[in-house]
Amino acid sequence: MSDKEDTFASDAVALDAAPLPKAQRVKVKWYRSTAYNMLILGLCNLAAPGIWGAMNSLGAGGSQSPQLVNAANALTFCLMVVSCYFSSVLVRYIGVKGALAFGTMGYAPYAAGLYTNNRFGITWLVILGAALCGISAGVFWAVEAAIAIAYPEPWNRGKSLGFWLTFRVMGQIIGGAVNLGLNSSRNEAGKVSYAVYLVFIAIQAAGALVALLLNRPQHVQRQDGKKVQLSITESPWYEIKATAKAFVNPQFLLIVLWIGQAVFSEAVYFTYLSLWFSVRARALGSFLGGVVAIIIGNLTGWWLDQTKVSLKARARYTFWFIAITQGAWWLWATVISTRYRRTLPTYDWEDSEFGSGFGVYIFLTFGFQINYLFLYFIVTHIAKDQGQVIRYAALLRGTESAWQAVSYGLTSLTVFAQVGGIYMNFALWAIAIAPAWLVVRRIGGNKDGQWDRESGGSNESPAVLAEETFTPTKAHEA
């Protein structure tokens, strides 16, 4: 094993380590600390996908009709699948810092496309902007996830993930607040004021400059004194093969459906908001949904770092909390959307029936955020070395993109926008639980309280995992 692998392996062993006493912590320079780097990563997240999310949280990118924007988003996510897959090759040549800066560059053209469509009715720039966004965003998604997993100290990983994802949702809050201020008197259906997009374009254009403030991995200083090793040194062809091998690992294949039920919902609930609510109600939804997501995301991160509770218990309790509540939200959404398809309403906050329909949007936003954070928790316990962190992060984000490409593509069709997307997500939730449980139940299940630390996880087939799951051994019962 190389020195770099040794560094990562020793850190992996401490994945669930208790915090070091303050007297034993290494003094670090603030501008080299993990807290500083997570702040920079968060600001990049705000400037790029955060503002992208802000536009979509207004419902269909703030447009009056969701079909064009959902089709453009489907193109974005299709291209992100490809760029995610090859992101480790790009990291080999320009490093994680350069790849992060590159990843921010396609977002502003997409916002510009929405602006020209909103103001002048131009459609071609929406499609071009979506394509440029997809090429760069896949790299951004993969690299930021790897940084968020690898940079923090072990006892801060959950809180750091929650802090990082806060910025993504903060974009939604900013977008909702700006739009609410500009459209507070508009209690009818319609498109968002084009002035909103000028603010969005300016923020997204600054993303690459913010990314340049990130420390390279070798310059990061951690309180446990360990170096961050996050680089790719193998050949591009090796990386392509290694990424493909990681994808077919049973551990990852078993969570593909769980990833799907988690991220498919974004297009579904944003489209739901755009179809059935007034402009100012959509702005309110963007704002309140973001606030709720920030609260639940940081609480989840804090919970996952609680070493006083066993890792096994934290993984299982979180999984079943998500599974049960998501089922409740989708049942609620199914009933509401079926009724709305018959009546075709446009609700404003002054209407008596506003609360029952608006509430399900807020809870689906809640569910998306906790699902999102938990996916990184799972991947953290699958990767075993620095290369695998980048590859699994890329695969996670690429798989998310594939599901979202399908989701946005389908919701560009009227029947799927109204009810089909909700029905399909409900079905995905139901069939995803069993295979994901085969993975989650093994986290923290061995004698050391970790998932097979030395090997980074099990290479057993899904059939063997299922047999062990439903026929517990003494080792599993311990």
UniProtKB/TrEMBL annotation:
It is a multi-pass membrane protein. The keyword Membrane applies. It is found in: Membrane. One of its GO terms (cellular component) is membrane. The keyword DNA damage does not apply. Keywords: Membrane, Transmembrane, Transmembrane helix. GO terms for molecular function: transmembrane transporter activity. Gene3D superfamilies: MFS general substrate transporter like domains (1.20.1250.20). The chain crosses the membrane at residues 35-55, 67-86, 122-149, 161-182, 194-214, 252-277, 283-305, 317-338, 358-377, 422-440. Its main location: membrane. Residues 450-478 are annotated as: Disordered. This is Major facilitator superfamily domain-containing protein.
